[in-house]
User: Fold these one by one.
Assistant:
Number 1:
Amino acid sequence: MTPTGSLPTRRFASHAEASRYFHDQGWTDGLPIVAPTPDSVEDMASASGRAPADVIGEFSPRRRSLSVWQAATYAVMAGCEPAHFPMVLATWEAMFASRFNLQGVLSSSGGAAILAVASGPGAAEIGMNAGSGLLGPGNRANATIGRAIRLGIIAGLGVAPGGFDASAFGHAGKYTFHFAESEPPPPWPPVRVRLGFARDATTVTILGAGAPRQITQRTGGTPESILAAIATSMRTPAQNVTGHGSYFVIVLGPEHASIICERGWSDDMVREDLADRSKVTIEEAERAGFHPTAGPDEDGRYVTARPSDILVVTAGGPGAAWSLVVRCWTRVDGTKPVTREVVRPGVATGGRLTVADSSFS
Amino acid sequence: MAIEIVMPVVEDAARQALTLAPAARLTPDGVIGLVDNGKFRAREILVAVADRMIAAGLAGSYAVHTKPSASRPIGSEDHAELAARSRLVLTGVGD
């Protein structure tokens, strides 16, 4: 007998009828879903190596919990392959970490999405896109893993736009916001190693994030010119973090990554530089009509991000020297990023080796 | 041929059985708890409401609890303390 856990089943004349019913009940993201049959859910759950009834987390504001079986159901609905499911589960586990403040991320009018950066061999094995168009359409793993999370948020946790999800606007990342890191140019170690994990581990790092902004710097040709362009995008005072600080994921495209890494800049140097360049002067804040609720630093400038609150990732495709800036939706006292290892059945890794000096560790 | 599909929503009897507490009876000497969520001028508007209630004889005083972060929910200890000392708690949701 198929272990349906606490989820009931219902009979439909066709998959299309089931998809329409799910939409009418408010259980979807607006797109058609793959109707989850008991067998398909069981196949999905089995890929985790965990008991279907295992509870991954509790969401007290809606008096809901999430089991492996439920997560598998939403993964089927999203179109995931079973091989994708360990990445889905690791993302859920990260989301239920208390420091992430899932209630705030899901409910805020700031419209946060769940940004997830995968690092490690497991991401490539399941075909995640780390290259051209990684936040766009066309890659099944990127598209469906993030969608499995959003469908679980809507159907499983009962958090729908216009209801508990009070997003003023929302953004496309609320459909899916998963992508993979491409291994950085030498001598930089990959994200997972910088965050204290073994090189053979696969990790997922999540952040409650606003919409991404793509920036270019194609004429300077130096680390300083690239970081100046990125910092300019980070430092707008027209956001509620100026003076308090926030978290940023900076995705260096291949041209920018090559220049920075090959000129001998370390990850620490890049983060220190960005933290300094992204500070906002009192005059800039006044010109923007912005009145920070926290005072300036000793140097008379408002902080945008501290070095430990910046994660630098290498990914994206070649072009005219692009990079990407993704900002946390709120300031540092409202949430924290979380990193978890993706546990793949039958794959032993070195796991977490240390806790790095990073808010993302 | 009909197909069997897993429904994605948990049947949770405890959640469905949730009911609202009976409405509090206001007294002229009662304390109004105000939860300031830290958003711009949240405290001012809550105090203005409390002042009007006191002037109308619906309460005797108010006490403000300011959340350290607007993005985080109120903690269970603060929640219990507010419930113990307040006849009524006022707050705002969102911005």
Number 2:
Amino acid sequence: MSNRDIHRAGVDAPSKTDKQSGVPGKTREDQPFNLIGKPFRRVDGRAKVTGQTRFADDLTFPRMVHMRIRRSTVPHALIKSIDTSKAAGMPGVLGFVTGEEMPNTFGILPVSHDEHALCMDKVRFVGDPVVAVAALTEDQAYAACAAIEVEYEVLETIASVDEAVAVPEPRIHDYGDEGNLHKKVSMEFGDLDGGFEDADVIMEDTCYFEGNTHLPMEQHATVAVPEDDGRITVCSSTQTPHYLHRSLSKVLELPASRVRVIATPNGGGFGGKSDPFNHEIVAAKMALKLGRPVKIALTREEVFYCHRGRHPVHMHMRTGFKKDGSMTAQHLQTALDGGSYGSYGVASTYYTGALQTVTYKLPRYRFDSIRAFTNKPPCGPKRGHGTPQPRFGLEVHLDKAAHQLGIDPADIRLQNLVEPGTVTANYLKVGSIGLGKCIEAVVEGSGWRERYGKLPEGRGLGLACGSYLCGAGLPIYWNHMPQSGVQLQLDRSGCVAVFCGETEIGQGSDSVLAAVVAEILGIDLQDIRLCVGDTDLTPVDLGSYSSRVTLMVGNAARQAAERARDLIAKHVAEKLEIPARQIHFADRRVFDLENPDNGMTFAEAVVVAESKDGTLGTTGSYIPPRSPGRYRGSGVGPSPAYSYTAVVVEVEVDPTTGIYDVVHVWCAHDVGKCINPALVMGQIEGSIYMGLGEAMMEEQVFRRLPKKRSPALVHRHPSLLEYKSPTFNDMPPVTSYIIEDPDPNGPFGAKEVGQGPLLPVMPAVANAIFDAVGARVDQIPIAPHMVRAALDAKEKGKEPRFGPKPGFPDVDFGAPLKVLTPDEGGDGKAENQDEAKVRKGTGTMTERKDALKDGAWKESQRENKKGGN
Amino acid sequence: MPDQMLTATLRVNGEDRTVVFPSHHTLLEVLREELTLPGTKHGCELGECGTCTVLVDGDPVLSCLVLAGEMEGHEIETVEGLQINNELHPLQEAFADLGAAQCGYCTPGILMAAKALLRDEADPSKEQICDALAGNLCRCTGYHKIIQGVQWAASKMRGDATAPPREVFYGDPLPNGGRDE
């Protein structure tokens, strides 16, 4: 009914008669889309406006009990004792779980399985889980939890990257590249010194991006249910049911076949529900121990401490420019404050360097990075994962370069765009690039040429661009299997059941999945029944992260649906005695393109096929194309396609106070091809919103007392009131342009839209403030006092800037991994790979080398190509 | 010490229900747990996010900040009472069609706050909508589709069938003329 409702309201109704009448003599491929590219009501739209969507905390089961986790109140300490005796005697208390009961470690990346579901002997941040208690009611569980006594032997608190560099002992973890540095990366692509020699001007900048958090409106919740056959089902607000499934199996020491994970619709994710979490595993353990369903819903404060959000990143960037604005070389250094655990951190570290090359031509590039362990909640992936920080640095840096070289900031970008089909200096294969069209749209829309640099004092425009992945080229753990799988079941009812492990986090993945299948089979969304995010019932999809769903699930769904279409077409063609290629699927009918009246309903067509072939079902899968990079670290950055965005922001700044308002945002996003433009719009507007929050106010920061007084290190404002995020009254008008530069790797050409449009917002705000008042704030978020401080400096004749002290922490990176660029005749391998330090412990790359050796990867690629992806 | 229990008859969505609950429990808790109406969500349980907004005698109230025991004799409305039988309220229609609900977690609270606004203002301005909803946080939408949804619903309720302009669904027309298709 949904799309019809919109159509009834008069919005661009596709004409029924157009749809029905196939164009004679034309093939199926020439027919217009039924659904793709038109706005339709999302398939879960009705459930969401009626309160019928069942989030994890809305689930109840007979005999269900409640669990709370006692978390560390000190940032770094050894656990001396845990005393549950007082709590055990309290009303309703049923049992406890402690760390020794689950000695196996877990973590999202195979290289950093460094978490215990409950800490064994050491706590690493305020909020680390120590012991769990279950009781009949939630109130009783809270009371008992508070009565548990834990004694600690306090260790030195490490609160920042600088402290982690300066204090190698005590180590927060007994693994990692050195001392309290979790990860140290250094790689050089091409002759960097030569590149700088070629430069006319060398620019140098230091900037800082503060951490911030996802702040989904739904707090994480989990219900674990022991089943009647001895298995365990875990319903959870997770973006990654597959990885949770693996973690549960490992920590609970149960075969994966005896564990079922159901991802409930997420009340917002933004990356914050992408890790397997301790509370999910502990709930399962408690449920198995008590033999009854166990629920835990985190408090808002706990969600702030769960975090896994944006890493605080200190950046130093040095770039050589020719007079015409082209770059000759860049050396980027990033220092990430990782918090207390690995999480996605190794990937985050590489991501702070990987995508510097996919927007503007950068022939030579060096990237150094460290990720420090500190006694704070672990950082991980938040919308843009590791790339918004260096994107901010790069786009502000370019703005400064444009000014120094006397080039318009729009032109310095337009003149140096990466060309479609390029392999970059760091071996990323770029497909379609609609960035030029994006820049032109926002430049024209905002009146940039007439207004930039010419607005009255206090008003300014800023421009910035960005690019993001459409899914990571490699899976998180090395394997040869599809990253996404879809299975269809068709029967005589005409209903098509679609099974897929994808997870709806609000972005509309269910709608994309249903729309792709409905389009190819020519049926309505209401003819489709989805079963998603269930590890028992659905083929594996790796989850809703890295903007992978539209491209990967879409391609898998397309393959499954095309196989079903071809099967049905074959049998219907036989019956109608026409060639199968002439059979078309549209308007819930299967018919002869040459003579549209010659046909039958879709349900009748299924009957024909089911009568001939028996029970009908098809599958589809997707594996991304192999990336050309062969050096260690080349696994982070490759993607089947890259989305592009350009943003212009207009600000109004009060120079006396430094208070500023964003008065308008123009955004153009190259989405390849819209599956559903209404959902694309929602993602663009939502990304702009979140980007403005990051630019102007959001920060996950910590309060520390002087060392000699206390080791305490606590969140400065773990509440929705004090953690500032934009409200209805803070959101400016947004002009959104959807640019469609179809990518050959995307389903129907589609690329991502969930993360990319956020990236340019922060630098665009900073650049606009410069245009308005001639002051630079080289850090995010930009608070009014920073604008004012930069203006103070300007008035005193100093550099009109507020930001971190120029420079980078004193870290010995040793010799970088050296990789010749494609232009220099490189083959994607490092010249000095063998000299490089061998990674300790388990490593994805070791497994990857083994996998590449046996040729299975190539095999899977050939299969994939055969499948039509 | 065992909880003090209260027995109260609450009138929710026009139906009287007698429930027993601990005296310190909020309306939010009693709605979700005793009355099996989990459509009302919790985001902070501290009155900061607006997610738990319900109507009490027609006015928006944060159900996490009122005790259920104080609610006897009042008309309580939740998202479950918004539709009439199986027909969606115009706000629900508009929100669903525009994608004003993405993850949908803040949606019940926003729908209720918007319903109260439309009771008082048949044709609210953007500023009035923003003021009325400023206490409700949404992390997904950037608020635009919600504002447009409230406006569309208001126009439907006034008997005006005009749909939002094309750019609300398709993005703005490219400034250099025509869409790139």
